[in-house]
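Single-chain item
Fold in token form
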Amino acid sequence: MAKSVIITCATTGGIHTPTMSEYLPITPTEIAQASVEAAEAGAAIIHLHARNPENGKPDPSPELFMDFLPRIKQQSNAVLNVSTGGGLGMTREERLRAAVKASPEMASLNVGSLNFGIFPMMAKYKDWKHDWEPKFLEMTKDFIFRNTFADIEYVIKELGDGHGTKFEFECYDLGHLYNLAWIVEQGWVKPPFFVQMVFGILGGVGADLDNLMHMHTIAEKLFGGSYEWSVLAAGRHQMPFATQAALLGGNLRVGLEDSLYIGPGEKAKSNADQVRKVRQIVENLGRTIATADEARQRLGLKGASEVSF
């Protein structure tokens, strides 16, 4: 019998900019509200970034995270997952600051470097709300999202060994699965692993369902019964890939970090809208939605009482 589906919701991210959608959560209050609503809609895990409340720019400040993390915890039972990806261009230390401060149950961890090109989005917009936005996008034409083995080891030992935090291992390409397998062989992490396969970012694996099938096959060979796998896809590919993951017995991620839309040409007015839509799809396929406590048990998390917020 298929396991229940763990829905992760990534509420704001560090890719889209304020000009792109008026519904993108920016302030700590907006991020907290969006996260609570997504949890109420069925998300077991909330993946979190922070933004400068004045201009919406991705911001690694622990103070911003500590403004919304306690509020979400007080109003929901969701697993709170703090990004260590941060915003493109941040240093390793900047990307890790909030997670070290919060000591969360989960944190994201990218397991390979890649060209991370979001500059093509510039062509879609002319009037920008803030000067930083086009510069931020343009710089990714000559940018490598750095995640070396030394970086990965540093994060795992700082957060995993130091805080008992488990990871959402973000894999943007086939080689990243093999990177993770090598990390497992070194004994840096222990099962169960949570593997998040990412599709549709320029520089990573393309959003082709054949790629999903192949990455799932390889992950099964590498990790067998010692892992949980999930899928996210950028932009218009979000819902088709989420549906395919559910059909294959996996888990899935939605949220305004990954796509600003809920249908062709129709912006999502909230993260909860996307969660409700994918929940309906999953339930129509005959599968059930995992609670936060089910996710904790399956992922071997330390529990909400053990965090620092």
In short: The chain has one domain: 7-306.
